[in-house]
Amino acid sequence: MANIAIDAIKEVTYDAIVIGSGISGGWAAKELTGKGLRTLVLERGRDVKHIVDYPTTVTNPWEFEHRGQLPLEIREQNPIVSKCYAFYEGTTHFFVKDAEHPYVQEKPFDWIRGYQVGGKSLLWARQTQRWSDFDFEGPARDGFAVDWPIRYADLAPWYSYVEKFAGISGNKDGLATLPDGEFLPPHEWNCVESYFQKQVAGHYKDRHVIMGRAAHITKPQPIHFQQGRAQCQHRTICERGCPYGGYFSSNASTIPWAAKTGKMTLRPNSVVHSIIYDEKKGKAVGVRVVDATTHKMMEFYARIIFVNAAALNTNLVLLNSTSSRFPNGLGNDSGVLGKYVAFHNYRARISGEYDGMLESTTDGRRPNSPYIPRFRNVYKQEMDFLRGYAAGFSAGRMSHTNQDGIGASLKANLVKPILDGWYVGSHMMGETIPKESNFVALDGNLKDPFGIPQLRISVGYDDNDDKMVKDYIEQMTEMFTIAGFKNIKATDSKQAAGLDIHEMGGVRMGKDPKTSILNKWNQIHACKNVFVTDGACMTSTSTQNPSLTYMAMTARAADYAVKEMKKGTI
Amino acid sequence: MKRRAALKNVAVAFGGLVSLPAWAENWNERSVSLSSSYFSPKESVLLAEVAETIIPVTDTPGAKELGVHNFIQKIVADCMDKKNQEFFASGLAAVDTAAQKKFTKSFASCDTGQRISVLNEMEASPDQKGFYSMVKGLTIRGYLTSEYVMTNLTHYEMVPGHYYGCVPVSPKK
């Protein structure tokens, strides 16, 4: 009997467990298997195999039953996810439906989720800027949250490491606010964008318009061919899954790479309930999982655990991992678990028109656009708000058709586009300040369909964000005016937090276990064999997109974890 | 319904052992089956004639041949709220009423000139121009997003393969 029990435990024991298969979980899987660890990757959603499970990837516009528009019933049943720009008839299968995975909004929070192998890495907007020391030193300088335990120099080699594998296009711009990376050739500018770049450079010393840095293979290298990936074909329907592997996703890149090692076991439909802490051993020993199909609870064991469930779900898993040693959640001696959640402020956008350069237009499509790095409060505090904002910018040529009349003349006119002038547009991406009052917690009564407590989300804007919106609108209006753009219109969408899909924090890194959960290696201060390297680990939010930083941190943490395992310290 | 049913048939053909891909299970049965029976056959014929009047056959196919009325029916049935559905249905009924009143025959029996005059009158009427602009807008959308137009006339490219930021405006455009 005893032997049978031992064998049964062996069967569910691995060297490492990775919770989540999205952008950071995929990297954890690749790095850990690559270093020889038998790794179990748990994904709460269904499997999505590269190409095979992209049902709409080659669907033509006329083949969609409603030509892309969503049926009313789907919109009514999904008021939250229907607000997401990428949710349409071609992508519903990659988004969580509101009713299936409920949560509690203490304040309005549009939680956009992708529960499947690859997670939101199938759906992201693929902007990949490095963070700089202006970002990592921000909390200490400006006196909010806690000091980051790392600096740019700690991550720089890891940024290089992940950039080369993922394939990041961009231009070396030499800006202090936005360190250069290992770039494939940048995407092309159009004439009005170049014109705006020059206008801004001519008027401001400290403001720059650069080409966006994006996870697109503009010129494949041998490492990309080895992954089975090819050059970006400019389809700009990335969110349906790319059959070329032209943009980076876990599905196209890290997960199959991990699978090739023969060391990975991928288990979809595995909703993680909690991490099992062994009080005698003084460490985590495994993970409790609810099988999404059978609703049966099961356990898996490993020496190290990487938590990459996506920021808020990582909070949920840790909060739900209670024991007598950790009655308030795993590693939560400080009481800050679930607190200091922050996000990006995307509320404001601005548009305008330009009536020059009418002899030129564009041809093809570009899955990227120019970018304006943060220029406020960079070297010193100069405004009445903390931190700053970056901005997207793009221009394009407009056209219309004459739709007057009826019959044959109307029909002929419909296929003769009349070229109008250029439109220009921009949106802000503001840093929000992590605060104790922006938090997530477990609901005391409500459970999800798997019997796990629902997450209560209490995260919103503050006065600092309002001031930033106002300044963005003023500054962009000024820059557009200087460039001679006309019909400038700015709007504050007042969209709820969450719709930016950049939620971060709750399991923050820090030097002091009394005020943070993770140390400089993304390791839980009080439970050293558990690592958190997704958005939950972020101490502050910067103005840059966060995904590339998650990738770099994950690779760095995995390297450290395996070295420590070999030393026998964890 | 069609794709899902087709997949199910495939599953049956393989002895019922093949399970549907998971993404197919997420399809909403009602939303994909609703549209086929939403309009009565008579309404469907009338809608096809209205669309054909707006975009008629010339040396290229018109709205009817391209099934634009089927697209409109799907949008009305699946994507519109009840208020707009009723607005659309009563507008469609008004087309026949107007034809009967003006030419003492159904819209479908009218010749092209008569049909145009019925629709032009609707466009000029404060009560009916809302319906007319709705049906015209849907007809144009259905036409421009049809396979025939996108492949033969507007030359949609699924895979452009490039982006050129500054090219001269071609004189034809």
Write up what this structure looks like:
Chain A is of the alpha/beta class and 570 residues long. Chain A is 24% helix and 23% strand. Chain A has helices at residues 2-11, 23-34, 72-77, 133-136, 138-142, 152-166, 191-203, 222-226, 254-260, 311-319, 408-414, 463-482, 547-567; strands at 13-19, 39-42, 104-105, 168-169, 183-184, 210-211, 264-267, 270-278, 283-291, 297-307, 339-342, 344-345, 348-354, 360-364, 370-372, 389-400, 418-431, 439-447, 453-458, 486-492, 504-506, 523-524, 527-532. In chain A, strands 1, 2, 7, 8, 9, 10, 22 and 23 form an 8-stranded mixed sheet that branches. The longest helix of chain A is centred in the last third of the chain and has 21 residues, at 547-567. The mean pLDDT of chain A is 97. With 173 residues, chain B is mainly α. Chain B contains 9 helices and 1 strand. The radius of gyration of chain B is 20 Å and the shape is elongated. Classes of the chains: A alpha/beta (570), B mainly alpha (173). At the A-B interface, α3, α7, β14 and α11 of A face α2, α3, α5, α7 and α8 of B. Chain B: GO terms for molecular function: oxidoreductase activity. Chain B: Pfam families: Gluconate_2-dh3.
Write the layout of secondary structure elements.
The complex is a heterodimer of chains A (570) and B (173).
Chain A: H1 2-11, E1 13-19, H2 23-34, E2 39-42, H3 72-77, E3 104-105, H4 133-136, H5 138-142, H6 152-166, E4 168-169, E5 183-184, H7 191-203, E6 210-211, H8 222-226, H9 254-260, E7 264-267, E8 270-278, E9 283-291, E10 297-307, H10 311-319, E11 339-342, E12 344-345, E13 348-354, E14 360-364, E15 370-372, E16 389-400, H11 408-414, E17 418-431, E18 439-447, E19 453-458, H12 463-482, E20 486-492, E21 504-506, E22 523-524, E23 527-532, H13 547-567
Parallel strand pairs in A: 1-2, 1-10, 2-7, 3-19, 4-5, 10-23
Antiparallel strand pairs in A: 6-15, 8-9, 9-10, 11-21, 12-17, 13-17, 13-20, 15-16, 16-17, 18-19, 22-23
Helix pairs in contact in A: 2-9, 2-13, 6-13
Chain B: H1 2-13, H2 22-25, H3 29-33, H4 41-54, H5 68-79, H6 82-103, H7 112-124, H8 129-144, H9 147-153, E1 163-168
Helix pairs in contact in B: 4-5, 4-6, 5-8, 6-7, 6-8, 7-8
